[in-house]
Amino acid sequence: MSNRPSFITGSHAYGIPRPNSDIDLVVLVGVNCLRKLCENGQEGSRVLAEGDGKAFYGKLNLILVTNEREYELWAKGTAELQLRALTKPVTREEAKAHFTAMGLTNQVSQDKMDPIELVPMESNSDGIFGFLDGPM
């Protein structure tokens, strides 16, 4: 398993969070960790059909992914939306459409997409990071 860092997505990353907004955290985990987090989370926590999952702990929404490909899609989509948010906050509907266009809706099937390679970029002082297509 990779030691990729977890990262925040959703309104706290590229939108305007409301006082009751949860914090969406993308976490790359192994299958055993996925099961434990989903089993011990609050109501609504579940393992999804493709082997990924969601776990809720108060206002913390863990988006649990078990493969590098899905992690990379979440990271790339979040970075793209963060760049767009520099000029205007991204709405929930815009973000959902963006991730859907990428083939990612929370349940992504690897066999539906061609692989991509991502190169991390440094974060700026606002904590915005990005990824570029290219060799690793």
Instruction: Provide the structure class.
Output: alpha+beta
What shape does the CA trace take? globular
* Gyration radius, in Å: 15 Å
Instruction: Estimate nothing, just give the exact number of structural domains.
Output: 1
Number of extended strands: 7
Mean pLDDT: 77
Kindly state the percentage of residues in helix.
Answer: 25-40%
Q: What percent of residues are in strands?
A: 15-25%
Biggest sheet overview: 5 strands, mixed
Gap from first CA to last CA: 17 Å
In what order do the strands lie side by side in the largest sheet? 1-2-5-4-3
Helix count from the secondary structure assignment: 4
Order of helices and strands: EHEHEEEHHEE
Low-confidence stretches: 107-136
Please characterize this protein's 3D structure.
The chain is an alpha+beta fold. It has one domain. The chain has helices spanning 11-14, 31-40, 68-85, 92-101; strands spanning 7-9, 23-28, 46-47, 53-57, 60-65, 118-120, 131-133. Strand 4 (53-57) and strand 5 (60-65) form a beta hairpin. The radius of gyration is 15 Å and the shape is globular.
Question: Can you describe this structure in just a few lines?
Answer:
Helices cover 31% and strands 21% of the residues. The protein has 136 residues and is an alpha+beta fold. It has one domain.
